[in-house]
Amino acid sequence: MEHLSLALARLLLTVQARRPRDDRGDVPGWVLITVMTAGLVMVIWGIARDQLGAMLRDALSSVHN
Fold first, then answer.
1. What residues form the membrane-spanning segments (predicted)?
2. 8-state DSSP, 26
3. Going residue by residue through the chain (65 aa), what tens digit of pLDDT does each one get?
């Protein structure tokens, strides 16, 4: 019985070693960073919308004058 379990373990390891790795389920790092950055921008914009709008208007008016 011990020989059978050892043979099955070796067979399983051999099959797993020969199988190509499938990375299609992984999310690439750049996608994660892009989504997290967009989320942070949305949160900051939601909290400080009035202040950011005033800063932009002041900056644009100082360039225009």
1. 27-48
2. S
3. 667 777 767 777 776 666 566 666 667 888 889 999 999 999 999 999 999 999 999 999 998 75
- End-to-end C-alpha distance for the chain, whole angstroms: 90
Cβ–Cβ under 8 Å, residues 51 and 58:
no
Report d(CA 20, CA 35) in Å as an integer.
29
Amino acid letter, residue 51: Q
Query: Tokens in use for 20?
Result: 């190509």
How far apart are the C-alpha atoms of 9 and 62, rounded to whole Å? 74
Rg (C-alpha) for the chain, rounded Å, is 28
Going by C-alpha positions, the residue among 44, 26, 24 that lies closest to residue 36 is 44
Domain parsing of the chain, residue ranges: 28-65
